[in-house]
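During the no-cost extension, the postdoctoral fellow (Dr. R.K.) reprocessed legacy sequence entries with the updated structure-token encoder. One reprocessed record is reproduced below for audit purposes.
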Amino acid sequence: MKKKESISSACNRCRTRKTKCSILVAPHSSSLDPHQPSKAPVCRFCHERGLTCEWDLLAGVTTNEDLRHKVRETTRQLDDMSVLVNAMQFGSDQMSSLLLAKLRVGVPVSNLAQSVRTGTADQYRIQLYHKSEYH
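Re-encoded structure tokens follow.
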């Protein structure tokens, strides 16, 4: 008898039912980064019943790995925002106005925080950019 493929997480339906989840159709992805979108696998239970197999996690990522990634991303965002708040609170009025104007026109927080960290934020005047240039 062929051994079922073991997986480290379960689809939403199997998790709700609290049953084992085995991959019937493996994902097709050329990306090595587990946090890049890929086609989700389909489990045997969902496939046999013609149900949509939905996954909260990306293929090949355990719940703990996904949570660690989310914590790192949230920590990075918090650090960026802290850098901006400190620069606006303790910097010059001109610096605060510059940062606020750039936030309002859609410059990403991460870009502004990086410019504050590298000391380049006060080296240029306010240039109003169209939002699409940053997204």
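The longest helix spans residues 63-90. Helices lie at 12-17, 44-49, 63-90, 93-104, 109-118. The remaining legacy entries will be reprocessed before the final report is submitted.
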